[in-house]
Amino acid sequence: MRAQEAAYRVSLLVCGNPDDAEDVMQDALMRTYQHVRQIEAPEAFRTWLYTTVRNACLMKRRRRVGEPARHVSIEQDGGDGHERAGPVEIEDPARAADEQLLNAWLGSRLRAALGELPDTYRAVVVLREIEGLSTKEVAAITRLSEANVKTRLHRARAMLRERLEDL
Amino acid sequence: MSPRPTGTCEAVQGQIQAYVDGELDAVECAPIEEHCRSCRPCAVLVQGLRQTIDLCRDAGHAPLPEAIRERARHRMRELLDAGRR
Predict the structure, then answer these.
(1) How far from the centroid of its chain's Cα atoms is residue A54's Cα?
(2) pTM of the predicted model, to two decimals?
(3) Boundary (domain end) residue, out of A46, A67, A88
(4) Does the predicted interface ipTM exceed a cut of 0.90?
(5) How many CA atoms are closer than 13 Å to the CA of B18, on its beta-carbon side?
């Protein structure tokens, strides 16, 4: 199940939360199983899997754009579609527990710093530094040139460094 | 008093990524290392980049929290069971 683990880890790091990551992993693994016979070289499997995860993350993000940024209670909404003043965040205990686990796993500072990176920078850092792929593999997955991968990696490292300077 | 740095900071910083990624040979590394011995800002930059990279790589080796892995495995089992029906 190493493929599943890798797919999930990247989904989690790129999407940022377990709910989205589980959807992405499911979507990516289903596509991979459906097309696995078309992958001729075993070494191409890794690139295929990460590409599928990356595309599923992008799709998820596009779908997320139309959703509200936070939950609003029925009482707040008032029934006429207009939200009342004084927004209240609804705390989800399961999500709070996940957040704690993920912060302990990755380190809350690194996780927050990764979350602040632009999408393509985050994908490049996750694939190159955390997953340990080569520049050529990252270029194939992200559809960027190798020079572009290096440039983004350079900027992403500098941004991370700035945010983690005092660690 | 510190010795005067050899080479320019711009030249060193232009190669810093390749240097920390281990893409340079010994001949190419030597002037960078010599420069960093006498230029504190460049030495700090190299050290900071290495720490950032190490932090990311360590995260890649850390196993996911078991509770989160178990939930993902459960979801996959559901998916596979649904496919068999």
Answers:
(1) 8
(2) 0.79
(3) A67
(4) no
(5) 13
